[in-house]
Amino acid sequence: MIRSRLTAQRLAFLFLLGCFFFNYPLLSVFNRGGDFFGLPPLYAWLMGSWLALIAQMAWVVERKEN
Amino acid sequence: MLQGWVIVLASFLYLGILFAIAWYADRRADIGRSLIANPVVYALSLGVYCTTWTFYGSVGRAAASGIGFLPIYLGPTLLFALAGFILHKMIRVAKANRITSIADFVASRYGKSQLLGGLVTVIAVVGVIPYIALQLKAVSNSFAILASYPEIIMPATAGAVPLFQDSALYVAMILAAFTILFGTRHLDATERHEGMVAAIAVESVVKLVAFLAVGAFVVWGVHDGVSDIFAQAAAVPEVARRLATADSPAAYGTWGTLVFLSMFASLLLPRQFQIAVVENVDESHLRRAVWMFPLYLFLINLFVLPVALAGMLHFPGGTVDADTFVLTLPMAHQQEALTLLVYIGGLSAATGMVIVETIALSTMVCNDLVMPLLLRLPMLGLAARADLSGLLLEIRRWAIALILGLGYLYFRVAGEAYALVSIGLISFAAVAQFAPVVIGGLFWKGGTRDGALAGLAAGFVLWAYTLLLPSFAKSGWLPDGFIAHGLFGIELLRPQHLFGLTGLDEITHCLVWSLLFNLGAYIGVSLQRVPNVREARQATLFVGGAEAAGAPGWRGSAGVADLLPLAGRFLGLDRAQEAFARHASQRGLKSVTELPADARLVSFAETLLAGAIGSASARVMVASVVKEEPLGIDEVMNILDEASQVRAYTRELEQKSLELTRATAELREANARLRELDRMKDDFISTVTHELRTPLTSIRAFSEMLQEDPKIDLAQRTRFVGIIVSETVRLSRLINQILDLAKLESGRAEWTVAAVDVAEVIHEAAESLTVLFAEKRVTLELEGCEAGLTVLADRDRLMQVMVNLLSNALKFVAADSGHVKVALAALCVPGIPLRGQVTANEVRVSVIDNGPGIQVEDQEVIFDKFHQGAATTDVLTDKPQGTGLGLPISRQIIEYFNGRLWVESTPGAGASFVFTLPRQAGDNGEVPQGDTVPGGGRGHKSPGGNS
Questions:
Q1: Are residue B682 and residue B670 in the same domain, yes or no?
Q2: What number is the ipTM of this complex?
Q3: Contact A24 B283 (CB under 8 A)
Q4: Domains held by chain A: number
Q5: How many CB atoms lie within 10 A of CB B385?
Q6: Between B4-30 and B194-216, two packed helices, what is the crossing angle to 10 degrees?
Q7: Is A18 on the interface with B (CB under 8 A)?
Q8: For B372-401, what is each residue's pLDDT tens digit?
Q9: Which of B243, B260, B285 should we substitute to test contact with A (largest number of A Cβ atoms within 10 Å)?
Q10: What global pTM score does this model have?
């Protein structure tokens, strides 16, 4: 599977991206009142970016070229 | 409708279905058509990560801290993004070495150490027990709540209920029985459980469906969509606080800690390791799991916050435990079917966790703790017993019962003081202690067994002190004085503010200290020494990955006759025979008996056994039948590391080329010396020829003149004959000296060595030259020349030297005013005491003149052959007065007797030729210490040159 070095590196990049998405200081940007389509901004951000990250991981490992 | 018997019946029905699935999957596996050889099943089985912690506890956590439940699921998502680097490698290594558990993994990595395997097992069992208690608490609570339907009554605390009325006890017993039935039906060589994995995958689906059903019901059945819940929540101040998390550094720190912690937990928890690594059928399944498992986590968390908020809105005032909202919300709305589904979902979450966790732990307890001990007890005679497979299963069954018993005990003791999630985090922190040795072991070759032991022990002790003991104390089981005031009343030792560290939550606090000491001890102790042979071999296998995995680790050999019965004792004879037959056909052989008794066969047998009893025990068992020659470090390096082999060759080559270079340089030097000698010989011959021709030419010229002209007058004729005679004398002297020198240099000279009185020689030499001195009117003075100083030398040769030096001096001093002095003295040369005497051990003779002196640059050259002093050539109008061989010959003679000859001179102030000879031992007469008058240092000037 992750035989391809490129795939492994793409995933590692997503790992770093995720570390950034799911931690301080980015979280503090969204940690405020108000709402985003009826959801609290922090909740919306975490669930949204989480799903986006999973989608990208799926795209990276399931690409045809593998 | 939801009476107690309905719930009990539903529970057993569900467990029965699971059992049927497992049985069916096992049968399919036996006929070679595996149900679980499918990436989706693999991804779903990884969902065992979600236990009742997730199913009930997340909502409780969300009610307490808003989105604080999420990091536990973000961490594994991130870990799976790193799957290509970590998980993939672990699977490959585990497959190549038939690793059966995380204890086996660690033990195998650090040289198949039984001690290390045992320590990991102890940490894992102690660490995971709170987690099992959590499942018991959740299931028994859900049962108790459901039993009082339709009323919603919180169950009494466990401690208040008599033991035999406590539903958690029965839950524990049923789960133990179920797990034993499930996981220990037979012993598999690879320790894989296809049936269990299939059942776990089904359980993952059940709990996900149940949770999504509750979520959908709460969001769209009770409320008007997600936005409606958030809007309502925002209107209630108490609930609105949960919409945003605390905006403080400590809160973000806790958040980050939990992401980090869950990342490791999803890899290192025994059940996660079991499912992700040991039960992995095909490493390519990991690709699907990389995104499917995180997606599973995402889906099961989708409704957590809405359900938590809805629960808080529906049950204001905290009368209902938020950990039960998932169950109590449908109950409050009289949704009987949904309630039952939720209960079954919770049961799925709990049974899945307990089954896999206890099977993994029991394997570890059996393989890494009990078997090594039993095999060491000679009185049991186990090592000689024919069939041990039954015993192995028996040990595992008891281990399962024991682990669940301990889980129940922890639940009784400490379970009530904490919410579900907090209990689970204690376990997470425990297994995080494996991170340095596991991750380090995969990427760093320098880790040693001692380092791993030290790191794990340090981490475990600190974890127990800062997290486990306080959990006992909080529930009143231990006196809580030591929490508030520290151990022995020492403030710095307060478990939750260790060394005065404050401002962190207890999990972060524990992780900071335990991982710091763990990592520090692991690396620090590892660096105390280089890994030994076995550690180095395992390090290469683990760090190098599958590429290095084929290298055989045994140098000895044993035949099928020894190995097959051995494997049969642990696996059962049929299974062992089957495995050997497969091995034989893989090697292209027709039958088991054709297998050669080689290292490869031994390795195969070891890995086969490792599957059943763990790598450390397998090594010991195989070693009992294999006569292994100990591995030398060089051999291991050769076997393992082709690179190192190449490196060794390179080093050898480098050494060779260095030697060659050195030899070449020596040869070149020798060659240069030879050339120099050759040139010197040529020079010598041409000089000699020249020197001989000069007198010969003049002899010939004068003889011819006499022959051609008979009428030359008598006076002229006499003068010519005189010249001819003197030139002949010079010529014969020259020839004599050349012969002399040639003899000296070739070492063919004859020496008559005897004790010689130096003063006597000096007097004799002076005597023989008296006439010449008188002719030139040069005074000769002898100083200190008294008899008594003897040296070992050839008397005639010494005489030759003396005459030579005296005539040289006479040659260069001016007539009339010339003055030559000979001084004899005994000297003490430090460091060469003569028979213990510290007194004079050297004889020194100086011949001092008041001639023109010698230029500094000439002072060494005059000892070269045919070299005449500058003073002689400067003013010389006549032929040279010497042969240029006297000084070289003198030096050769003196050096032959271990003496030295040199000249001291200041130009214009005379010269002093000095030689020393070692004094002969035992001569009588103590000559007073000679005054060492420097030869050239004399004051009066002498007229330069001679005429």
A1: yes
A2: 0.94
A3: no
A4: 1
A5: 11
A6: 140
A7: yes
A8: 888 777 666 655 666 677 788 888 889 999
A9: B243
A10: 0.64
